[in-house]
Amino acid sequence: MISIIMGSDSDLPVMRQAADVLKELDIPFEVTIVSAHRTPERMFEFAKQAHGRGIKAIIAGAGGAAHLPGMVASLSPLPVIGVPVKSSNSIDGWDSVLSILQMPNGVPVATVALNAAKNAGILAAQIIGAQDEAVLGRILAYKQDLAEGVKVKYTRLEAEGYEDYRK
Question: Can you tell me the distance from the alpha carbon of 98 to that of 75, in angstroms, rounded to the nearest whole number?
């Protein structure tokens, strides 16, 4: 099971992308709010107990100061994937990116691009797929579908030419 957490419900429009891709890949997940700043006791309890509840990876989204992914990673033995969220109080999202990306040695957080919760979901699935053949097969099929989608586009572009493509 994957846990998707966010600092606020305002992060949900971004974080639902992770849930959507995990649902597509038929990987169980949970979604909740765990604020590093407003509910620190909840965050401590969540991070320390997640592995004991059967969670295999945590996707943590946060905007602004974005302490949630790093704090959870400092308390949990599980892989944590940070999703920087461009929030209303962000400085173009860079504060979120750097807060999650610049972790000290010993406290790694895998960090995806700004608002890229879908990639976080795919990465979490790949972590599970490294040990689960059925999940690995679904990831391989997902990636094949991506390749087929590109094939349709390049075939059309080459047939129509660049000037008529997208008209």
Answer: 20
Q: pTM of the full predicted structure?
A: 0.94
Region 2-15 average pLDDT: 96
Can you give 111-151 as a three-state secondary structure string? Answer: ECCCCCHHHHHHHHHHHHHCCCHHHHHHHHHHHHHHHHHHH
Find, among 109, 129, 130, 126, the residue nearest to 118 by Cα.
126
Question: CA 97, 102, 106: angle at the middle one, nearest 5?
Answer: 135
Q: How far is CA 44 from CA 2, 34, 136, in A?
A: 18, 9, 32
For residue 45 the two structure tokens come to 């309890």
Q: Please list the helix, strand and coil fractions of the chain in percent, rounded to the nearest 5, in that order.
A: 50, 15, 35
Cα angle at 131 between 83 and 12, to 5 degrees?
25
Measured in degrees and rounded to the nearest 5, phi and psi for residue 93 equal: 85, -10
pLDDT of residue 31 exceeding 90: yes
Instruction: List, for residues 118-132, the tens digit of each pLDDT value.
Output: 999 999 999 999 999
Give CA–CA dist 18/23, Å, rounded.
Answer: 9
115: left (phi over 0), alpha (psi -120 to 50) or beta: left
